[in-house]
Amino acid sequence: MNSQTIKETYDKYIIHTYNRYDVVYDQAEGATVWDTDGKEYIDLAAGIGVNCLGYGNSEWTGAVIKQLNKFQHTSNLFYHEPGAVLARKIVERSGLNKVFFCNSGAEANEVAFKIARKYGNTVADIHKNNIIYLNTSFHGRTITTVTATGSCGNQERFGPLTPGLIQIEANNIEQLKEAVAQYNPCALIMELVQGEGGVTALDQVFVDAAVTLCRNNDILFIDDEVQAGIGRTGRLFAYEYYGFLPDLVSFAKGIGAGLPIGGVLAGPKACDVMVPGDHGSTFGMNPVVCAGGAVVLDTLDEPFLAGVREKAYYLRSQLEAIDEIESTTGLGMMIGINLKTRDFQETAKDLIAAGAIVITAIDKIRLLPPLTITYEEIDKALEVFRKVLG
Ligand SMILES: *Cc1c(COP(=O)(O)O)cnc(C)c1O
Fold it and tell me: What whole-number distance in Å separates Cα of residue 291 and Cα of residue 283?
């Protein structure tokens, strides 16, 4: 198929839930992508923060293909080594106690909600099952995670929504205190660095207040690190910056490096709440994806993460030196860009047309480059920015 036929086939056969940019992917290497017409792009989006090792990483593809040649799947009624290895690695690096693997970010948050609800209904002293979420949040596309997603603004179309989810304003400590007093929640959920909701890191004082409220009132702190986790911010998990251990941490995007996997890490209060029969996933914990995930964690050691922080600092400071750029937001390689005068959506299209793959979030340009992006690739992308915004 040529690019025109591909696009027409999408329009005819695929339910229209996405407005796509005008690029048909053909091949990729490192952080460089070529479309079906042979045009080159620097990829500053990595899917949506998924391809953290870029494209064609030989250790990752090698591990994936090796496992693919052994066996591609077993049900969770049996054991396999890649699952054991990945579980041990991620639990030991996180400081939490146990993990459950599923296939996506939304599914991971669903697991966290189920654990929190069961904890509130059965383990906590008083029967409680409300969950607090933030107005600028994004937690997924299932009915319950969409209910907990303040940033999309169109939940009601899918009603009736899941009961027991309470919205408060991000960074509003008073509202949080009032909601805790009024609704007696079993959990609260937040992204420490919000992605879809505008690429902003929550205030340290707000997070500190939330952590204290959780400790004092036997509330589980669910930290959604689906986007911010797995090295994206320059630390393995964003909670390392905030200096606490959440009770539940959902993760997905980066750990798969391009293949579908998600999961929830659970600390001491939450790790033994679930028993056989409480939850499951047919595709969850796929051995091929787990084998790749282990390479991701091995690659993301401390020197590598220090390099990510340095590259992020370089990219941000070079972007901020461009006149049209008002400021950058977010943390590490999770970058939001505020423009001074230009429309962000038009600018995203212009940047892509000029050879830099970017995405957007609310009212910003958003960059989530592969963590392995080279300085050479960063400089090429910066040239595109200077050309388009100059
Ligand atoms: C992407 C994302 C999700 C949803 O993940 P899916 O894999 O698309 O279900 C949930 N939370 C956050 C913070 C995300 O960025």
Answer: 15
